[in-house]
């Protein structure tokens, strides 16, 4: 597989999307950071804290969360570029489709099979809606195309509808 098949996305869009996702994810990671902060206060030295289980799990969680947020930002930006989405309404629909494809089945499982409370699932749904729809709209506002003049106008179709055999 060659990398030239992957759509180009502005690096600043990926960086800002990562920050956007980390801000939304903060609600999920806050309990972990709280336990880490308490452990840091109760430890006698920095070395003891660094070797603790809480510090290790926090570092792993934060690292994987940053990588995951960057990949999600690239993926959403690439979809915006590949579909030729130019409006906020279109990006909100795209974000809703991403939510429906990736998160909705898990939340239905939480409610129906695992019988979790509506409040618990509701907070998770809200956070995931911000991560999908909010990220799509935010990236559309910021801009994801490395060359903004690459797809001028809506009358020429989307990048996915174009083929190398059709004259422009």
Automatic annotation (TrEMBL):
| Pfam families (UniProt xref) | DUF1761
Q: Provide this UniProt record's keywords sorted from A to Z.
A: Membrane, Transmembrane, Transmembrane helix
Residue ranges of the TM segments: 12-37, 58-80, 92-113, 125-143
Domain of life from the UniProt record: Eukaryota
Task: Name residues in a coiled coil.
Answer: none
Origin species: Podospora appendiculata
Q: What is the lineage of its organism?
A: Eukaryota, Fungi, Dikarya, Ascomycota, Pezizomycotina
Kindly provide the name given to this protein in its UniProt entry.
Answer: DUF1761-domain-containing protein
Q: Does the keyword Transcription regulation apply?
A: no
């Amino acid at each position: 597989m060659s990398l030239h098949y992957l759509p180009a996305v502005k690096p600043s869009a990926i960086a800002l999307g990562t920050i956007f996702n980390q801000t939304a994810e903060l609600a999920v990671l806050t309990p972990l950071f709280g336990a880490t902060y308490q452990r840091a206060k109760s430890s006698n030295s920095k070395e003891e804290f660094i070797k603790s289980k809480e510090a290790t799990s926090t570092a792993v969680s934060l690292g994987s969360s940053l990588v995951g947020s960057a990949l999600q930002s690239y993926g959403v930006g690439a979809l915006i570029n590949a579909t030729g989405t130019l409006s906020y309404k279109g990006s909100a629909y795209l974000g809703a489709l991403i939510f429906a494809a990736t998160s909705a089945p898990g939340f239905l499982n939480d409610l129906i099979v695992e019988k979790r409370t509506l409040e618990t699932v509701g907070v998770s749904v809200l956070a995931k809606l911000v991560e999908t729809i909010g990220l799509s709209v935010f990236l559309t506002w910021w801009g994801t195309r490395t060359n903004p003049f690459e797809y001028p106008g809506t009358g020429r179709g989307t990048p996915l509808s174009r083929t190398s055999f059709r004259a422009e």
